[in-house]
Amino acid sequence: MDLLYIEIDRTSAMPLYQQIAYSIRNSIETGILSPRQQLMSTRELAALIGVSRPTVCRAYGLLASWGMIEPKERAETIVSALNQSNFSPENSVELWEHDETIHLSFGLSRFAIRLRKQLMDGQLTDALDEHFRATVPPYNELPASQWWNLCAEIGKELSLNIVQSPSLQTSVSDLLKRTKAIRCSVEEVALYPNIALALEHIARLIIEPGETVAMTSPVCPLAKSLFQLLGAKVIEIAGDDRGLNIDRLQSLPHPPKCLYICPSSQQPFIPPMTREQRKKLINWARNTSSIIVENDSQAFLSSSGASIPVMKTMAPDLPIFYLIDFARVLYPLCTSAVAVFPKSLAPFSQISSYIDQQLLEALVLSRMISKGTLESYLRKLRKRTASLGGFFQKPAEQVISSDCNSKLLSSFR
Prior knowledge:
This protein is of the alpha/beta class. The chain folds into two domains: 3-108, Orthogonal Bundle (Arc Repressor Mutant, subunit A), CATH 1.10.10; 130-410, Type I PLP-dependent aspartate aminotransferase-like (Major domain) (Aspartate Aminotransferase, domain 2, 3-Layer(aba) Sandwich), CATH 3.40.640.10. Helix content is 44%, strand content 12%. It contains 18 helices and eleven strands. It has helices at residues 16-29, 42-49, 53-65, 110-120, 123-133, 144-160, 168-180, 195-206, 221-229, 246-250, 275-288, 311-314, 327-330, 346-351, 360-371, 373-387, 396-401, 403-410; strands at 69-71, 77-79, 94-97, 100-103, 189-192, 212-217, 233-238, 258-261, 291-295, 320-325, 337-340. The chain has a seven-stranded mixed β-sheet, sandwiched between helices. A two-stranded antiparallel sheet has the order 1-2. Strand 6 (212-217), helix 9 and strand 7 form a beta-alpha-beta unit. The longest helix is centred in the middle third of the chain and has 17 residues, at 144-160. The protein is elongated and about 80 Å long.
């Protein structure tokens, strides 16, 4: 090994073993060290560069964890023939906490590197905070007394082992059939503790790093952060007075792998998508084979007038994931979320279901649905939000008729 490429800076905050590992790595990546070339023994290298043998052993261990070198017989070490390390300089093993540098003896995954970046700039934490602040009903509007009464009722039944409630999947399936005309089997319904887990697991099923996800602008910060965490490239598509600028979507040089959209509520700037736009979007998805993730959580608060069918109902044959976030109407009593999978992917919904249906929250929510308590609460909540003049309760014509709203919309065209 040419020792000129072992660079040691004893004044650096980086530990010596990492400096040695990076120097050898550089020699391997630049071709100075060839595949299967034998390296010096740890004892020899330690004596020549003036460090302890354990330091060199630790450097070799780090290189081996990256797949750069491999041990052989008689304590020999050679450069890996495959050398297919996924670790790269951008996967810095340095983490920053309170302006102090912490060094790890292993390489972080690319997911962890993206997560670290989002945590450092506050992107993910801000997205989570905004998600639970936005459009959540005031606490005094929540059905807290009904919720706790059901908790007590089910608690007594649990103590006597006589709980008789339909499964949450069954209750949700019936609710969606009644309120959204979605005809889905129990097997297509996946349950999650929160919407973030639902989005993450759907994204992991359909998105590879580097693939494109289109989202309406202004985007949902939480969804954008989660897709970016998985390595997706996010393209923002501006909304218009019909809910979505589909012409812009069609003009993309390459159709996105997935479109994430909230067609029933894109407040505060974009009105709900019209029926015509939804049909147009369905035709686009059919022609491009793109997957649609339809987050319809806010539709629970839509006006009581003529309802626009959800896309899951309009095109049951397409690969459409339909999401409902109960936290939007029940937080902090309940944070459960539901995803209805495409029929062809129903087996994955059972694997991805992360709620034990015997948990108290699941039992209470199921009984609220089956007794009609949830729908009664939602009717009262719709009246309340309508009296406050929220964007999502109004038809598109009413939203656009406001001068203020027209000015806001014009900035996104």
